[in-house]
Specification:
Helix content: 25-40%
Distance between the termini: 17 Å
Shape: globular
Mean pLDDT: 94
Order of helices and strands: EHEHEHHEEEHEHEHHEE
Radius of gyration: 22 Å
Low-confidence stretches: none
Largest sheet: 10 strands, mixed
Number of strands: 10
Structural class: alpha+beta
Number of helices: 8
Strand content: 25-35%
Length: 274
């Protein structure tokens, strides 16, 4: 099976409001997104299809066909629109990132000849995206940033072995990174709010449980969570998952960007992800 991805950009305006709620309740749940005048985003939509290779043509499907189908849909229904004022579906469904992915998925599924829709991923901005794969629930990913120092050193290895394995990262004084943390939850959007989880609640939990303990800290020296551990990024991503899991029952995975070139991901021991 082969997988092909096409990215489309579009801009749209929307507002998050439940009309039967008071302004105070809307602000409490949706924050700045409840501004009655609306706000907008430059969205990045990734559409992935899958299918077998056609041995005669050497392709799965003509990517131009995918482009035309997706572009026509986006231009007609989403691009340049005030979604909850102009689009019939979003007049009755809050156009959260999750609800947008749900609608886009159902609108595009079955439209492609010679291949099947495999995944939809919608980036609302650099820090927020939602995704759906075939046969799977929706996921929502929120990105956070923290700065920290660490020293890579294992007590199970000799000084010479540590230096050989970790090189300059074994510097006794440590070194640092600008980490970017991806926290992904998975579930079904609430029928009223259109969200898997309240973003304000998610932000508060991640800030309190993780960022307050690791931001501008030396992981080896200043944190209880990494005491006695070698804080490689593999270890860091597992520890952060374990820190958050009791507070986020819908936690799906943790991703950690140590640098722009090094990325690590952990799904937890009970995940079905291979």
């Amino acid at each position: 099976m082969l997988y092909l991805l096409r990215r489309i950009d579009f801009s749209a305006t929307h507002v998050y409001r439940v009309q039967t709620w008071s302004s105070e309740e809307n602000r409490r749940v949706f924050g700045l997104c409840s501004n009655p005048s609306g706000h907008g985003h430059d969205y990045k939509l990734e559409v992935m299809v899958k299918g077998p290779l056609n041995e005669r043509s050497g392709i799965v499907v003509n990517t131009t066909d995918i482009k035309h189908i997706v572009n026509a849909f986006v231009e007609e229904e989403l691009d340049g629109k005030f979604l909850d004022r102009e689009h019939p579906y979003f007049q009755n469904h809050i156009p959260t990132t999750e609800n947008l992915v749900d609608y886009i998925w159902r609108s595009l599924e079955g439209r492609f000849d010679g291949c099947k829709l495999h995944r939809i991923q919608l980036h609302e901005n650099h820090y927020l995206s939602s995704e759906k794969e075939a046969g799977s629930l929706f996921s929502l990913k929120r990105k956070y940033h923290f700065c920290a120092a660490h020293r890579l050193h294992s007590d199970h290895l000799s000084p010479e072995e540590n230096l050989k394995l970790f090189g300059k990262c074994n510097n006794p004084h440590g070194h640092g990174h600008n980490y970017y943390l991806d926290v992904a939850v998975k579930g079904t959007p609430d029928p009223v709010t259109g969200m898997i989880i309240n973003l304000a609640e998610l932000d508060e939990i991640v800030e309190r449980v993780v960022l307050d303990k690791v931001d501008h800290k030396h992981l080896n020296l200043d944190t209880e969570e990494f005491k006695g551990l070698n804080p490689t990024s593999e270890v860091v991503v597992k520890v952060i998952y374990n820190m958050l899991q009791p507070h986020l029952p819908h936690l799906y995975k943790i991703g950690l960007w140590e640098t722009e070139k090094n990325y690590f991901e952990y799904f937890g021991p009970e995940s079905n992800h291979d």
